[in-house]
């Protein structure tokens, strides 16, 4: 998506259409069509990644049912909008040749489609941001850990804000007579939204990296307000999932990382019945 934007810029995207050669106009429109498809896929897959993170972190069954239902909706969301943008003109080549007035074909109302996607996207973003809030409110975390989690979720709110700003840029989208100039705001807000979405999905892994590089700031054992107890897995022929208290750092339990253990202490108490959690 980003590479195509650079090619579009070199071809004249951002300039008035009457200053660009015919071949470059066709190339810009064609690349715009491709970036729109990639945008739909990126936005959908980042939502899917966050939902799967929720499923891994929070083990309570009622919550997981909501997550799985959201995953199903997201699985339908991705191909619906990606194919919708890819096939909105018939034949497909009419998408980037219609501007010449020398070809025949038919296109659906792309502007209405883009607005529908933007509104659904904003609603879905808000749902994903608010979905884990009840679970997070039950966690017994220290002040530093709570601040870090709030900062992570504030990035999700920034994505929603970018989506709203992008929505305002759609006013002239697909209806402009100077598309190579008027559609630039839609393009850069779309790219920004996609990039920030990817950053947001990577934040938990980035925190794990920061814990190694800056353990004094991001290490769980350094938070004076947190519960200082950590846990390790004990091998038992009767129950390999028993947990016992030990000194040192926490390790993987049921396939979850130590960060995940810290997040699910309250949830596991209800679901797994471990004493001391």
Low-confidence stretches: 221-262, 264-277
Q: How many discrete structural domains? A: 2
With strands numbered from the N-terminus, the spatial order across the biggest sheet is 1-2
Strand content: under 5%
What distance separates the N and C termini?
Answer: 45 Å
Percent helix among the residues? 55-70%
From the spread of the alpha carbons, the general shape counts as: elongated
Rg, rounded, reads 24 Å
Describe, in plain words, how this protein is organized in 3D.
The protein has 277 residues and is mainly alpha-helical. The chain has two domains: 2-215; 232-271, no CATH class. The chain contains twelve helices and four strands. Strands 1-2 form a two-stranded antiparallel ribbon.
Topology:
Blueprint: H1 2-11, H2 22-57, H3 61-86, E1 89-90, H4 94-97, E2 106-107, H5 110-130, H6 133-137, H7 143-169, H8 179-182, H9 184-213, H10 215-218, E3 230-233, E4 243-246, H11 258-263, H12 265-271
Antiparallel strand pairs: 1-2, 3-4
Helix pairs in contact: 1-2, 2-3, 2-9, 3-5, 5-7, 7-9
